[in-house]
Amino acid sequence: MTDARILLHPAFPLLLGAIVTAALPPRKRIYFSPVFTFLSLICLFAVPAGSLMTLPFLNGMELLFFQSTTLSRLMCFFTLVVVFCSQVYSLGREKGREGCWSLVYAAAACGVLMAGDFFTLVLWWEAMSVGAVFLIWSRRDPKASKAGFRYLMIHFLSGNLLLMGAVLYASQGITQLGPLEPGGAAYWLVLAGVGISAGMIPFHSWIPDAYPEATIGGSAILSGVTTKVAAITLLRLFSGESFLLGMGIVMAFWGVLYALRENNIRRLLSYHIISQLGLIIAAIGIGTPMAKDAAVALTIGNILYKGLLYMSAGSVLYATGRQKLTEVGNLFKAMPITSVFFFIGSLAIAGVPGLMGFAVKPLVVSSAVYSYQPVAELLLYAAGIGTFLSIPLKLGGHMLWGTHPAPPILRKPKTAMYVGMTLLTVFILAIGFVPGLLYSQLPWQEEVHFSLYTADHILSEVEFLLAAWLAYRLMNPLLHPKDFISLDLDWFYRVPLPRFFLALSRFANFVRLSVWKGILVLVRALSRFVRNPVSYFMKPIDGGDSTEEYCADKYRLPVGDGALLILMVFAVVYFYVTIF
Amino acid sequence: MNQKRKFSLAILAVLIILIIIEALFVHPHAYSIWHEIHGFDAILGFFVSILLILVARPFLNLFIRRTEDYYDKREDKNGTNTALIKEETPHD
């Protein structure tokens, strides 16, 4: 069941763009990429609701290749927005491959969001992994190569777990994506697969590992896509799963604690992504319509303001060549425009009223409240403080002000960077001041009413922030940037596991060499036998080398032996004939 | 009193004023038990911040703090360090 409307699939213009840009010379690609992203955005508005393309599958089941729902269109919209802004941000400084692979990546993300069944999901999921890996690799640097490779392994694992779950579900007759019945191997396989991509502990290390290693435009795109698409997939399949509530709370604190320790700016932001994902996943775990809307809203908020934060951090990196907090400071004077963007992004993420964060973050906490989970509410609220401490205060404080003298500006940020950042800021401010713009588009909004701009909400939020600020000023010496790293769970596959594999391969080599030596000994013995078997019974007449080839002249018996033999044979035959 | 102290005290002053305003004029939603206390958010914010910072830095330092070349050293020993260039190439 297909018709021309399938051409409206947002992935279609993007893939077309990828092919077109791949044919262009590297420097020109990025100028065309935003055009195709914009085209995809326009097409999105024309997409009607419902199932638009199905493919036949086994046993009468169908694959829902293009399933357009409120949620999927909403998420595709914001994904495309951040991709567009990042591509604009990258104009003029690009080195070639970003333009093409960002389109592939975006196409795959839309494919996942629009997928209606497991197998379509897995297909686009793998495509997303490929796109992301090449996006990371578009920065030609050994560290980026290694990080990209680790990303690849983790995400192919995630895709495989998903595929296993999908096959198991198909054997039970389930192919459609929708809220899943808890329990069973397939359930947990799919949860693990999606969860790895969504940054669940203990498989979250790829986020702080890979995101800082991409190009500055690439990081902005990566930060807003993989994890968010995975979170939305979790929402579609596992809302209400109580495991997610617990995991989300753990993630929220984990991310914030590491962020408070981190020295590398973009790594700090990456750990913070884990924290925000924790809040989103916790909301998914709560599962009420309000919580689900809160999860969606927070995801969208993160796509926008995290993108802005990565972009401004990227501008700092571009301009100064430095990405560690121990090497920057006082940038508010040196790079005022970028600082303003950073400031807006950081206040937004912290939930300052007037910016988007306030419109979305408290929703998660409120949803915990309205489902009578006071412990969860308290913990989520506390994790939110960590956000304020780590980004506006720690990161912003040490980067834009602080005791370190301003680093020299090596290059001025390009205008395109400012344009990209401005575009995102427009969304953040718009939704911040008129949250209804977002709320009216949320999938469950008929059942839920949000009213955040009330006096007591604003007051309590402001008090909360001021008190945290006071505590920060008190504890400031403890948070001074220091150049060290913090071990995370990826230690297990970066230290003992490689050593184990090395030992295994050394052992295998040892076995191989031993066998080879044994074969050589055998062959040498055999070859002597084959060459000259007589040498085992006699020595050569003239005392030569017994390993030489057999030569009849050297191994002659005395003549009498031959005569005796003839006589004996004659005697036997004579007696035989005369007797019989 | 130096600049920093003054600024901190200014924040504290604003905070107290806000709490007073809240106590006098604003009718709280009171959807959970503790919201009955005025300025609860402030108290919570203050103490949780301190706790978070204490855990993040001094406490975790005992377990997971390592030097920057920790992984590079180990990869050199293993022979798996493919990052032959130790310094990063100019970032872009």
UniProtKB/TrEMBL annotation, chain A:
GO MF, one example: NADH dehydrogenase (ubiquinone) activity
Keyword Transmembrane assigned: yes
Q: Which UniProt keywords apply?
A: Cell membrane, Membrane, Oxidoreductase, Transmembrane, Transmembrane helix
Look up and give the membrane topology term.
Multi-pass membrane protein
Cellular compartment(s): Cell membrane; Membrane
Gene Ontology terms: cellular component: plasma membrane
Per the record, the coiled-coil ranges are none
* Transmembrane portions of the chain: 6-24, 36-58, 70-92, 99-116, 122-139, 151-170, 185-203, 215-237, 243-261, 268-288, 294-319, 340-358, 378-395, 416-438, 450-472, 562-579
Domain NADH:quinone oxidoreductase/Mrp antiporter transmembrane residue range list: 115-379
Q: Source organism's superkingdom?
A: Bacteria
* Pfam families according to UniProt: Proton_antipo_M
One GO term (biological process) = ATP synthesis coupled electron transport
Q: What is this protein identified as? A: Multisubunit sodium/proton antiporter, MrpD subunit
Q: Tell me which species this is from.
A: Papillibacter cinnamivorans DSM 12816
Automatic annotation (TrEMBL), chain B:
Q: Where are the transmembrane segments?
A: 7-30, 42-64
| The keyword Transmembrane helix is assigned to this record | yes
Keywords from UniProt, A to Z, are: Membrane, Transmembrane, Transmembrane helix
Query: Any idea what this protein is called?
Result: Uncharacterized protein
